[in-house]
């Protein structure tokens, strides 16, 4: 962290489906951001997202006090100075908005997590989905392709099912994908299969347990598939709050790292 009152930092969250980047002023205001689909080499995607966020902020690499990184491929972020695991960065990102203790549910492209966040914004515990239940975002992208709909419209398609969901397994991502193909082969309505997919993800998350109020959700699934949150409310019997810009929670937390912790040596 620099002594400059106008210092800025970047945070990059390198996920399996999307790479997210934010540029943060030391006062806590997000002044630039970008999100790009993950494809090809993670290093190239991280570079592209970081520079797009800098362009959005009308800033350059030389203006940065540091670069924080998190996510599946966080070590692929160019010139990173700080790094932390996803659950810690999501906790910091959510706390930045709410400023109170919470149960944070991170639903991203890979592994859903239920994170306990204390009154100071620190992660004090994390519970994850079973190993074979991971890949939730990737599964929803697969489902959208086979249902011939844009991923961002899968939730809209599901809402037209009038509550009638086709059975889609929630036990395993491979079984879930197979179920989508089987339901379509059987002639099930696309809308009902879409709703079955949404319910499948909510069931995987609900199985983790530990949903003490207040419950806040972060991650790309919360950004693009709000029906999962409605289904989760129904399964848990509790109100579920989606944080602002949930897909950027991890990147925001990574940027906050720059102002809160010493830089790390990167080999």
Topology of helices and strands:
Elements: E1 8-14, E2 18-25, E3 30-37, H1 42-56, E4 64-71, E5 82-83, H2 86-98, E6 102-106, E7 113-117, E8 123-128, H3 136-146, H4 154-159, H5 173-185, H6 190-206, E9 215-218, H7 220-224, H8 227-236, E10 240-242, H9 249-260
Parallel strand pairs: 1-4, 4-5, 6-9, 9-10
Antiparallel strand pairs: 1-2, 2-3, 6-7, 7-8
Helix pairs in contact: 2-9, 3-5, 3-6, 5-6, 6-8
Order of helices and strands: EEEHEEHEEEHHHHEHHEH
CATH class of the domain at 8-89 and 248-260: Alpha Beta
Termini separation: 20 Å
Strand order of the largest sheet: 3-2-1-4-5
Strand share of the residues? Answer: 15-25%
User: In angstroms, what is the radius of gyration?
Assistant: 19 Å
User: Can you give the mean pLDDT?
Assistant: 93
Kindly state the number of beta strands: 10
What is the 3D form?
A: globular
Major sheet summary line: 5 strands, mixed
List descriptors.
38% helix, alpha/beta, 21% strand, 10 strands, 5-stranded mixed beta sheet, Nucleotidyltransferase, domain 5
Written description of the protein model:
The protein has nine helices and ten strands. By secondary structure, the chain is an alpha/beta fold. Among the domains are: 8-89 and 248-260, ATPase, nucleotide binding domain (Nucleotidyltransferase, domain 5); 132-203, Nucleotidyltransferase, domain 5, CATH 3.30.420.40. It has a five-stranded mixed β-sheet. A five-stranded mixed β-sheet has the order 8-7-6-9-10. Strand 7 and strand 8 form a beta hairpin. Helix 3 packs parallel to helix 5 (173-185) and helix 5 runs antiparallel to helix 6.
